[in-house]
Amino acid sequence: MTDREAMEELHRLLAAALEKADELELIMVGIHINEARNLLAPTTATSH
Known about the structure:
Blueprint: H1 3-47
């Protein structure tokens, strides 16, 4: 493997890692939103 091929492979792997990190971040945001809804649901139901 040449230096150029190694750099291209590294770039590809880093791009894939960043894409996966973005996906995981969106999943975590979704989980936190659901947790917040669950915490607010009983309060909202009893206040009406």
